[in-house]
Amino acid sequence: MDKGPFSVEWLAQSSRGGARDLPGESRPRPPGSPLLTPPSVPAESPREREAAERAGHGAGAVEAAPGRPRTKFSAAQLRELERSFREQRYIGAGEKRRLAAALNLSQSQIKTWFQNRRMKFKRQTQDAR
């Protein structure tokens, strides 16, 4: 099969806004840029595909972003967080620092817990109506 004037490389570059030249003209590429893979399609090896299928993930499964694992709060931590939430739904910087030190958690974990707890509260009050 003949490639013709609109090659896959040219189409991929033009979809990224890089190729404004006429088809057939070559333009230098930055090192490491893909030749044939369009930017919206992640490259997945057959081995990775097989492993995902064995694990029960379909082709369109969304995996968790890499990062720290989910925090498991102790009962004592939850009691203190809930007590603080009952007093005030939005936590201030000083209270956040105090809770983080007292509960041995990061300020970011405290902030995220309060955000999640406000959303849970919102769902509960909407369901009650």
TrEMBL record:
PROSITE patterns membership: HOMEOBOX_1, HOMEOBOX_2
CDD domains from the UniProt entry: homeodomain
Annotated GO MF terms: DNA binding; DNA-binding transcription factor activity, RNA polymerase II-specific
Statement: the UniProt record of this protein carries the keyword Cell membrane: no
Pfam families reported in the protein's UniProt record: Homeodomain
Subcellular location: Nucleus
Composition bias type Pro residues, residue spans: 29-41
Swiss-Prot/TrEMBL keywords: DNA-binding, Homeobox, Nucleus
Region feature (Disordered): 1-71
Cellular component aspect of the GO annotation: nucleus
Name of the protein described by the UniProt record: VEX1 protein
Species of provenance: Agelaius phoeniceus (Red-winged blackbird)
High-level lineage: Eukaryota, Metazoa, Chordata, Craniata, Vertebrata
